[in-house]
Amino acid sequence: MTSDAASSHFIESGDEPGLRLHLRLRAPVGKDPLACPPVLLVHGATYASPLYDVAHPGASWLQAIAEAGFAAYALDIRGYGQSRSQVMEDADSPYATGDQALRDIDDAVTWLIARHGAGRVALGGGSWGSITTARYAATIGRGKVERLILYAPIFAERNQGWLTLLADPKEPSRINPGFGACRWVNEETTRLRWDEESPPGVTRRDDAVLTAMFQASLADDPLAKKQTPPAFRAPNGTFLDLWEAFNGRALYDPAAITCPTLLLRGGADMTSTRSDALALFDKLGTDARHYVEIADGGHFVSAENRAPQVFAEANAFLGLNVG
């Protein structure tokens, strides 16, 4: 079975006037999407919903979920992807903070529950999205989340490499005060970050996947092709959360997460480390918790050569055997 091409839905923000949040949907062929249980994926710090729907054979997580019989959605947090904001255009400080992301997730979850007539939704978040979705499930989303997938999870472990990138050059004990509302992301910086996890001579991905992700992200930003080289904007509010997490300060209480939870990471991921993920695993408030590590996978393992393993493990956890 294959799914139809992705469609877009826009919902009104309950928090920021004029903001319309974008959700990408893939649904099974021959089925009414509204009759299919919803799954919502939330992105991380840089790439928005295109990360979960890469236009390359075998690289779309949304496609894999849809083929298993669910209505598979991916949300663009405000300022990301097609959830463009005039407030971000006018801001001079980091935009799309963790608090704002929680409100966007709640808007999307509330809309999905009403649209599908569901009591709860399955929710997944990757990288920074693992922080926002876990925090949501532990706080305002309790009772709305049926199952939770934390992909490339980040919790509360000191990570000096990231702290060096985020710190004030003049005062390393504080976050850089020069971060504006957003930053420009180009293809080469993405390639360098992705490749730094790979030993020399080791290739974990088809380079066409990176190009497809990047081109889709450019298409979502009306100012992208005016840049040299072409680049898209990503909000900087995420840095506030990452600064806390990489200083070892937890942003939520894992014991408050009581729904079945899967932690899923690549074994070579230097941002989501094994020790940090297992510390989170041990603190979760549910006995129905699972930890899966994809050998030799990097931080973007869902878009690497071992992506089919990621999709299979996630689908097995979700129990996507709905025919």
TrEMBL record:
<protein>
    <submittedName>
        <fullName>Alpha/beta fold hydrolase</fullName>
    </submittedName>
</protein>
<dbReference type="InterPro" id="IPR050228">
    <property type="entry name" value="Carboxylesterase_BioH"/>
</dbReference>
<dbReference type="GO" id="GO:0016787">
    <property type="term" value="F:hydrolase activity"/>
</dbReference>
<feature type="domain" description="Serine aminopeptidase S33">
    <location>
        <begin position="39"/>
        <end position="303"/>
    </location>
</feature>
<dbReference type="Pfam" id="PF12146">
    <property type="entry name" value="Hydrolase_4"/>
</dbReference>
<keyword id="KW-0378">Hydrolase</keyword>
<dbReference type="InterPro" id="IPR029058">
    <property type="entry name" value="AB_hydrolase_fold"/>
</dbReference>
<dbReference type="InterPro" id="IPR022742">
    <property type="entry name" value="Hydrolase_4"/>
</dbReference>
